[in-house]
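ZP: hey, is the magnesium ion complex queued? I don't see it on the tracker
AM: it wasn't, my bad. submitting now with these inputs:
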Amino acid sequence: MWSDIKSNLSSAQVYVIELLIINLFIILLIIIIVGSLALEEWLIILLIFSSLILLYFLGRKRKREFEEIKLAINNIRQNVYKEPEDIKLGKNLSIIENDVKQMFEKVKEDIESMKRLQRARSEFLGNVSHELRTPIFAIQGYLETLLGGAINDDKVNKYFLEKANQHTVSLNNLLNDLIDISMIESGEMRMSFRYFKINDYMKNFVNETAHFANEKNLELIYHPVDERLQLFGDKDRLRQVMSNLVQNALKYTEKGKIEVFVEEEEKSGKITVKDTGIGIPREDLSRIFERFYRVDKARSRAEGGTGLGLAIVKHIVEAHGSKVEVKSKVGEGTEFSFRLKK
Ligand SMILES: Nc1ncnc2c1ncn2[C@@H]1O[C@H](COP(=O)(O)OP(=O)(O)OP(=O)(O)O)[C@@H](O)[C@H]1O
Ligand SMILES: [Mg+2]
């Protein structure tokens, strides 16, 4: 009881100014009513007593308000609230109710995004280990077979070595892609932007890549643009973008052609890679830029793909202030395009 009174009184300390004002007011009132200070002693006692009572009630009110806030904070901490609307503070606290609700929403968002990141991280690690295991197992298998005696069998020994070598190549590609992804995502990838003549650049690129198309009996056609057109970008990184897009087109096209277009627009140049391949189902279109996402895992892996190519393409194109657009029809073909500033 006594400690309760004490704590309520101490909570009311902040209202001292209000108290002084009220006291002054009461003194003034008494002077007016009584007209003299004859009852001075009694009145002072009365004044102090009434002030203490007032102080007590004010303190109790303040303590209740604190408790209400404390309860709300504890409830947020213990995930009691599902929605911001569940938070209800008393009338006197309505001014901070909105702030508490906003804080709750922010905390909820932060926790969600932390959980998402954690999930993405473990999923990424899982994917990486899975992708590493495939070539390592294969290499191990070939080497063990060779050591087990196949090395002396002239009919198969070279074949097994070639196979093992192929897998070391894909292991190396995977590692390079992973390094790129981690550099991009940690913001360490240095870009060096310059103006360059896009026509010469594309002509060279297509010439160097044409033999891959010929090996598959596909045509790789370049549709030139005004040779004076200069676009702004990082040539080395764009090479990565073009290689990925053209390699995909080659991988997922059985017959027909792959076309590369550069078209001049008012403020930019539009670069397009178009194929007559298997196409991408509509429901997969929004996901193909995710790391490790492949429409047909078995086919992609057989082609030596890990599903990192388009994730890298997306990052690089976005670093150029642009975005990759894709149009596709199953059985007819696919078209990827992006723009570079003029
Ligand atoms: N031109 C295309 N035609 C049909 N499907 C495509 C085409 N380009 C990409 N895809 C689909 O999108 C998926 C993701 O492409 P991405 O380039 O990221 O991976 P990948 O080619 O399988 O492997 P990586 O590029 O890492 O070697 C592919 O697995 C494929 O299913
Ligand atoms: Mg690819």
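AM: back. The mean pLDDT is 89.
ZP: great, adding it to the tracker
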